[in-house]
Design goal:
This protein is an alpha/beta fold. The chain is built from five helices and nine strands. β4 (129-135), α3 and β5 (160-163) form a beta-alpha-beta unit.
């Protein structure tokens, strides 16, 4: 009986070893299969739209439009919190995130500025990304006031610019350049009206998207799409 038992056990061991070998081969093949899959099927592209390719709508004739084709951010130059001149020229070749705000804003601006802080932190070491916060109350928001506000939010030098410009130019830029609704409050904080949107602008001065500056999820999307503009072919 002993020899029979021995041969039965030996047969079982061969089967077990065979199964173990097959499992090991399958495990080793998984990375190879993943690589083959990514090479053949992993070329999906994430496309970020280019807005206003046929120009912007101006039903009331408030905007002086040069052409009907692709809309670009127009030329402008304002004064930053450090008294330097910053504008459209400094946007070329970089990705710029822009919002319109004012420092005495009693509602959405504090939240927007906190979200802009998150954007700055995400690209703190990326020289090709910058932030513009443009005041819609330039009479109150002098460069000195903007400097204190920038320090409050930890604005990085040469990264996040708080801009002051002539009121008529600021409002024209907001409405006709960035296509964002903006209403002058005549010095009364509660009467100012502006969008909560953060605008994503590519290195050619084209608007690529709008994201709510009061929504953490939308700002996360802004950060993602900014990275795609930086590292992708967009």
């Amino acid at each position: 009986m002993l020899p029979t038992y021995f041969f039965v056990c030996s047969g079982d061991m061969k089967v077990v070893r065979l199964l173990q070998g097959m499992v090991l081969i399958c495990i080793l093949m998984v990375p190879v299969l993943i690589i083959l899959f990514l090479r053949n099927f992993g070329e999906n592209e994430y496309e970020i739209p280019i807005l206003y390719e046929n120009g912007i709508q101006d039903p009331f004739g408030d905007c002086k439009l040069d052409s009907v084709g692709q809309h670009y951010i127009p030329q402008f130059e304002f004064v930053a919190q450090d008294s330097s001149k910053i504008g459209k020229s400094e946007m070329m070749g970089k990705v710029t995130i822009v919002d319109f705000f004012f420092t005495s804003c009693p509602s959405i601006c504090p939240v927007m500025s906190l979200e802009m802080e998150r954007v700055q932190d995400a690209f703190r070491n990326e020289e090709q990304v910058q932030l513009y916060s443009i005041s819609i109350d330039p009479e109150y928001d002098t460069p000195e006031v903007l400097k204190k506000y920038s320090e409050l939010h930890g604005a990085q030098e040469d990264k996040w610019f708080f801009l002051n410009g002539p009121k008529d130019q600021v409002y024209d830029l907001a409405r006709c350049g960035f296509v964002l609704p903006t209403i002058d409050g005549q010095g009364i904080p509660e009467n100012f009206t502006h969008s909560d949107k953060l605008a994503l602008i590519d290195g050619e001065g084209r608007i690529r998207g709008y994201y709510s500056g009061t929504s953490r999820e939308e700002v996360d999307l802004l950060i993602l799409e900014t990275k795609i503009l930086l590292y992708g072919k967009q």
